[in-house]
Amino acid sequence: MRILVVSDTHRDSFSLRAAILKQPRAEVVIHLGDGEEEAADAKDSFRDRMFLMVRGNCDWGSTLPDEGFTALGGKNIFYTHGYTYNVKYGIYNVVSAARGRKADILLFGHTHTALTEYRDGLYIMNPGSLCGSAGTYGILDITPAGIVTNILKV
């Protein structure tokens, strides 16, 4: 199963659409906040994909949750924008939250800095910010052989 992970699109609908079109095998798109409006538009345009979304600190007036938890491909995924866990000052709090939920995978955004890491059984990914010409997004592949995380440029 391929999952497209994006965050911090900040009204850049073009880059979001480009990332989705570049990943035709991605069955699921997880948007980690700060771009609810363009994520909702993309969800309407790409009805063949499952969309999971949380709100970010710039999604004013949003009714989306601050975090989500789902099982995909047999793995538990905890996802959040990250501002409620102060991820700009370190990831200890968000990693602890993921471990407390028995997640296999942690996805967060907010910092605009891409990250992939593996810590004692927990895959961690921040796809960075998708907006602009230097935008990045993440690919999460869950297969019977294991989990692979990648960061790609738009």
UniProtKB/TrEMBL annotation:
<protein>
    <recommendedName>
        <fullName>Phosphoesterase</fullName>
        <ecNumber>3.1.4.-</ecNumber>
    </recommendedName>
</protein>
<dbReference type="Pfam" id="PF12850">
    <property type="entry name" value="Metallophos_2"/>
</dbReference>
<feature type="domain" description="Calcineurin-like phosphoesterase">
    <location>
        <begin position="1"/>
        <end position="142"/>
    </location>
</feature>
<dbReference type="GO" id="GO:0016787">
    <property type="term" value="F:hydrolase activity"/>
</dbReference>
<dbReference type="InterPro" id="IPR024654">
    <property type="entry name" value="Calcineurin-like_PHP_lpxH"/>
</dbReference>
<keyword id="KW-0479">Metal-binding</keyword>
<dbReference type="InterPro" id="IPR000979">
    <property type="entry name" value="Phosphodiesterase_MJ0936/Vps29"/>
</dbReference>
<dbReference type="GO" id="GO:0046872">
    <property type="term" value="F:metal ion binding"/>
</dbReference>
<dbReference type="InterPro" id="IPR029052">
    <property type="entry name" value="Metallo-depent_PP-like"/>
</dbReference>
<comment type="similarity">
    <text>Belongs to the metallophosphoesterase superfamily. YfcE family.</text>
</comment>
